[in-house]
Fold this sequence. Notes:
The protein is of the alpha+beta class. The protein has helices at residues 5-31, 36-121, 130-142; strands at 146-150, 156-159, 166-167, 172-177, 181-182, 187-189, 194-205, 212-218, 221-228, 234-245, 250-255, 261-264, 270-278. The chain has three helices and 13 strands.
Amino acid sequence: MNMKTPGAVLLLLWSGLVVVAAESGGLQDEDTxxxxxxxxxxxxxxxxxxxMSALMAEQRVELRYTKTQMEAMETRLRASENKAETMETRLRASExxxxxxxxxxxxxxEKQEEQAAAVKAVGGSVNLxxxxxxxxxxxREERRVSFSAxxxxxxxxTFGPFSKPTTLIYRHVITNTGSAYNPYTGVFRxxxxxxxxFAVFVYGGGHASTTTGVSLxxxxxxxxxxxxHQPSLQYSSSNGASLLLxxxxxxxxxxxxxxxxxxxxxxxxxFSGNLLFPM
Length: 279
């Protein structure tokens, strides 16, 4: 609409000038017949038209420049809006993080207040007596339970066969942290309630009718067996289990009826146990 307005103005101006020129020329012809006046008026009209054309061209250039500037400003405005949205998203994330941290701090404060109240209830002091320190040390030591033992300390010996199950006594102690295993009875007694892992390894010689085998027991309960048989040469087998034990529960190994096992200074036949975690 704006681009057409200067053309319309120019057309109207041109029409008006032609009319004026025509009337002026007609009058002069009637009075004096002076034709040079028409020739003098025509150059003025062309000059005005040229000036208006130049003005229109200048306006077009300015319009294009203005349009370019507006497009650039629109692009910058969109970029600013995108940045604002990004900053708003980051701000929300930061607010969420702050709220989470406040919740953690609040929880820590509550625990601290509970601990302070507990300390106040026992006399308002965290200083431990000698007996309390000893009790804590004993509880820590009780939670360190691990042992391994083999049948013989030196030499070589075969145990069995016997007609009925017989408890094996593993006399050579390799390790016995917590002293829960008794090398004189072959029995492990649980010092704390927890989950323990036990493993047995057996070694024997091949025989046509004699097998090699032992069974793991918890109290009076049979748990697993390590058992093998072949007519010749030496061979071995193993087994293990995780057990939930109460304080005072016992675990031990029995020789399988009519079976034998062999051990030597190489310690082939072993019994081991470890406290995995207290409960």
